[in-house]
Amino acid sequence: MEESSSNVLSSEKPGKMKRTKKRSKGKEEEQEEQVFNFNKPADEGDDDLSDSEDSVYSGLEDSGSDSEEGEEEEEESHGDDGEDDDDEDDAEGEQSQQLQTEEKKKGSEGEEEKKADEYEHDSSDEEDIRNTVGNIPMEWYKDFPHIGYDLDGKKIYKPIRNKDELDDFLDKMENPDYWRTVHDKQTESDIVLSDEQVELVKRLQRGQFGDVNFNEYQPSVEFFSNEVMLHPVTNRPADKRSFIPSLTEKEKVSKLVHAIKMGWIKPRRVEDDSRGRYYDLWATEDSSILAQHKMHLPAPKIPLPGHQESYNPPPEYLFTDEERTLWEQQDPSDRKLPFVPKKFSSLRQVPAFPRFIHERFERCLDLYLCPRQRKMRVNVNPEDLIPKLPKPKDLQPFPTTQSLVYRGHSSLVRSISVSPSGQWLASGSDDGSVRFWEVCSSRCMKTVQVGGAVKSIAWNPNPSVCLIAVALDTVVLILSPSLADKQVVSASERLLAGQQEEEPSEGAGPVWSEAEGEELNQGIRLKIQHPKAVHQVAWHAKGDYLASVMPDHSSHLQVFIHQLSRRRSQNPFRKNKGLVQCVSFHPVRPYFFVATQRSVRIYNLVKQEMTKKLQANSKWISSMAVHPGGDHVICGSYDCRLSWFDLDLSTKPYKMLRHHKKAVRGVAYHRSYPLFASASDDGSVIVCHGTVYNDLLQNPLIVPVKVLRGHVITHDLGVLDVTFHPTQPWIFSSGADATIRLFT
Amino acid sequence: MLKFQDLSNVINKLLEAKNASHSKVEFDFLVRGQFLRTSLSAHMETEGISTEEVVEIEYVERITAPEPEECMMHDDWISSVHADTEWILTGSYDKTARIWSVEGKAVMTVAGHTDVVKDVAWVKRDGLTAVLLTASLDQTVLLWEWNSERNKVKARHCCRGHTGSVDTVSADPTGLKVLTDEADEVEEPADRPRKKQKTQHLGLTRTPLMTLSGHNEAVSSVLWSDSEEVCSASWDHTIRLWDVETGTMKTTLTGSKVFNCISYSPLCRRLASGSSDRHIRLWDPRTKDGSLVLLSLTSHTGWVTAVKWAPSHEHQLVSGSLDNLVKLWDTRSCKAPLYDLAAHEDKVFCVDWTESELMLSGGADNKLYTYRYSACQTDAGA
């Protein structure tokens, strides 16, 4: 309640203050007049201000009015502050009251003080009226002997001051209250501040409230808030002017609008920062721009003009009539040239290019519409790195189904061979017979009893003769099956009967002899008696030479090459390089392949030297076949492997195929189709696709395509030999179950 | 579900109502040129015929199952058969050809070849004498004259000129020219074209009138498609048509497998071929592009070694295969054969028809079977 009342009071206070100010102004005017009058005494006042304390006191004590003046003075100075801050003013009001009470204690009491008691709380009206000069800089009076006027208009004289510096110093040294003594300029007196006053000053200096008891953090009641109160602080109705637009404002605005319209006032210009008012340190390092530059791809260049574009092209670039008609008929996008080459005698006569703008436009369109892109990262799927093998379905033809079974043998069929024409099939069996079959009907056309288990059989690859070499025991028989044209038959007879050149047999060399009697009727023509058991025979592609193999660890007499037309035999090797398993002639060149247990040696028969030695990486080679091109060899081995050698690539196998479960017994290449096959003791024949490329950089493509089953495993032996039909993608296989099967 | 048995009963009832003396007959039904084999709705579903449409169903008397008639035993495999109206001529692997009566009686054995007889053909008949041809592996074709009354056979000519075994022979419809074919292979480099030869029989030993070269490999089958045109099938995967007058090749039909046999029907003018991949394919020999298969008939499980069109029916053909089966086909029912004739115990090498309602088949079991079939052609519309 107190505060509210003080508020009310303070709100009225400025009015009073104004009044006092007016009054003081009036005084100032008076003083100005006085200034005119008394311009002289200036420095004296200063001197007076440094009067000794005693005198001041004395002065105050002398006249109660004087002391009153000091109070008033102080009061007023506070009042000035009070204009800024009501609260402070208020506090000062109280303080002034305290001061007054203090001064009462001091014993100086006047009439005015008693009056003030009536207005205990109304401190604003109390002015120090002992000196009526008002609130003016007191130095104006420093040249005068007086410092102002009292209420009666009489001069108030400055107290006599005779304190010098020494006195001042002594005073400072001796007087314990010196520090709390202040000099009142208006009355030229020294005032010793009481403890309360000092405390008050200190508090004020610290920025605290003057009143010790005042709680500045008291919770405040928000009266003037945005909330409409039910019982407002003031019940005053809103002013009418708050509803009516202000006329003066309207006038001002209309003036401004007019000025703007007339162009007298220009809207404030927004200063653009672009012109280097601020320096953009990072401007050049814009990441997107940098990225663009990094990814920049130059536009594709237009190819340089050629001879066709010339104004005087060579005649071969000019269009003939057909070319011209073709050019005209073609769709513009299909044309090879977008223009027709023309010839001009001089550059001067070249007309303007009519499509220039069009062409430029199209070029721009091209550049604009075809965004150029750089692919930074390549996602590589590891599976893509594996070479894609084509599907077997796409590699047809290859044999897939069993078509015919050739039955007739009574024991396992070790070897088969197809006639070069593909019409006949010869087979040799352990039952001591050689049978000739018609391929297309599986009819056994002929049976020749040779009297021993046939180890190997080979049809002479020369189509102009019809001969078969049969290896059994220690003999190689040459048979003439007479299953061909009579001329061919007679040609082969002539070949056999040709040279009777009997060489002096060199010790262990083979012995040639002619068949006689019954054997002759059966078709047996020649017998070549070997010193040891013959395991394999192989013809040269021309059909005159025949190689036979007699595996033997101890001797160098393992391979013989026989010349049929001259009935001559020779042993090409002087040294024993290992157990020879099989041999083969190169299809076109004078090379000879000899497979021993672990390696394949290739000999040049003309130079009589070894050219290459292939390491098979297998324990025991069982069979070997040479590609019709002559650059590739496959070897089957008893440890279930099939190795493909690329002779141009390496002496190590290019590829090892381990598809068989048991020992591989026979391998074969097709003469024309990219096929090869392997026969195994597990009763299956595996047909593989093996494309050989002419390009030396491209390795052969090997894809297993088909497993052919059909043979019955007897005595742990499955398929013993395999051979392809010379022209069709058919394969023959002979097995231990005494059958031969044709797969187509 | 209307099955064709029910349909057949309906027709029989209708016919009985019209004609009291009608005896019950089994019928087959044709929906848009295809035989009805399942229920009508299922058939229409598979053929994609809308049930909203009016479907015309033709009915024909069912071809009754061919009944085995005779079994003629040979001494060896039968390589070929050719039937006349009265006589049946067979070639055998025992180096002879035989003449049988239709009833299955052995009439004559023609012996003279020194090797397997691969093909036989009747050339012509006038009265009691008949002229026949035999082709053999011994590279000759023999022309025989046979007097049926006296039952004497006389070798008239020996046609030489082949450098390999003669696999197939075919006689001109007019009976004047003979076409033979060799299966021998290379007598010279392998790319040397194979030969076909045509002989005119005037002297004792004849030489070829003309050689048709073009095939790269053995020619397996030849025939006269008409008097001016010769058709040959080969192991080099082609069927070639030749103009006899000029000796030039007219058309080549290329397949993907070896052709074993071909047959031509003058009724439907289609060429049927049997190949080593189990399929019988129908070709139009007049097409120029030459690789268009009209229809594939697939049911055999082995090589198709023989195929023959019916002489009197434009839709039927018979085929023999290495899977021991003879199949009767109707081109209107191309998914499955009409009948499987499983009489043989071994490979079938040859099939033929006679005019007198007999089908013949011979094979590696030394037996020539004849089957009687109903040649009823009483088509009636519905």
TrEMBL record, chain A:
Composition skew (Acidic residues), residue ranges: 44-54, 63-93
Subcellular location: Nucleus, Nucleolus; Nucleus, Nucleoplasm
Residue stretches making up the BOP1 N-terminal domain: 141-399
Biased composition (Polar residues): 1-10
GO molecular function, one term: ribonucleoprotein complex binding
Domain of life: Eukaryota
Basic residues bias: start-end ranges: 16-25
Pfam families assigned to the protein according to its UniProt record, in alphabetical order: BOP1NT (PF08145), WD40 (PF00400)
GO BP term (any one): maturation of 5.8S rRNA from tricistronic rRNA transcript (SSU-rRNA, 5.8S rRNA, LSU-rRNA)
Region annotation Disordered: where it falls in the sequence: 1-129
Compositional bias segments (type: Basic and acidic residues): 101-122
A GO CC term attached to the entry: PeBoW complex
Extent of the WD repeats: 406-447, 712-744
SMART domains: BOP1NT, WD40
Keyword RNA-binding appears in the UniProt entry: no
Keywords: Nucleus, Repeat, Ribosome biogenesis, rRNA processing, WD repeat
Function: Component of the PeBoW complex, which is required for maturation of 28S and 5.8S ribosomal RNAs and formation of the 60S ribosome.
Complex formation: Component of the PeBoW complex, composed of BOP1, PES1 and WDR12. Within the PeBoW complex BOP1 interacts directly with PES1 and WDR12. The PeBoW complex also associates with the 66S pre-ribosome. Component of the PeBoW complex, composed of BOP1, PES1 and WDR12. The complex is held together by BOP1, which interacts with PES1 via its N-terminal domain and with WDR12 via a high-affinity interaction between the seven-bladed beta-propeller domains of the 2 proteins. The NOP7 complex associates with the 66S pre-ribosome. The PeBoW complex associates with DDX27, BOP1 interacts directly with DDX27.
Family: Belongs to the WD repeat BOP1/ERB1 family.
HAMAP family linked to this entry: BOP1
Name of the featured protein: Ribosome biogenesis protein BOP1
Lineage: Eukaryota, Metazoa, Chordata, Craniata, Vertebrata
UniProtKB/TrEMBL annotation, chain B:
Keyword Transmembrane (UniProt): no
A cellular component annotation (GO) from this entry: PeBoW complex
Keyword Repressor: no
MF terms in GO: ribonucleoprotein complex binding
Pfam family, one: NLE
The entry's keywords: Nucleus, Repeat, Ribosome biogenesis, rRNA processing, WD repeat
NLE domain residues: 5-44
Region (Disordered): 182-201
Ranges occupied by WD repeats: 71-110, 110-154, 212-252, 262-284, 297-333
Primary residence: nucleus
Record localization: Nucleus, Nucleolus; Nucleus, Nucleoplasm
InterPro entries hit by this protein: NLE, WD40/YVTN_repeat-like_dom_sf, WD40_PAC1, WD40_repeat_CS, WD40_repeat_dom_sf, WD40_rpt, WDR12/Ytm1
Annotated signal peptide: none
One GO term of the biological process aspect: maturation of LSU-rRNA from tricistronic rRNA transcript (SSU-rRNA, 5.8S rRNA, LSU-rRNA)
PROSITE patterns: WD_REPEATS_1, WD_REPEATS_2, WD_REPEATS_REGION
HAMAP family: WDR12
Family classification: Belongs to the WD repeat WDR12/YTM1 family.
Function: Component of the PeBoW complex, which is required for maturation of 28S and 5.8S ribosomal RNAs and formation of the 60S ribosome.
Subunit structure: Component of the PeBoW complex, composed of BOP1, PES1 and WDR12. Within the PeBoW complex BOP1 interacts directly with PES1 and WDR12. The PeBoW complex also associates with the 66S pre-ribosome.
Name of this chain's protein: Ribosome biogenesis protein WDR12
Native species: Amphiprion ocellaris
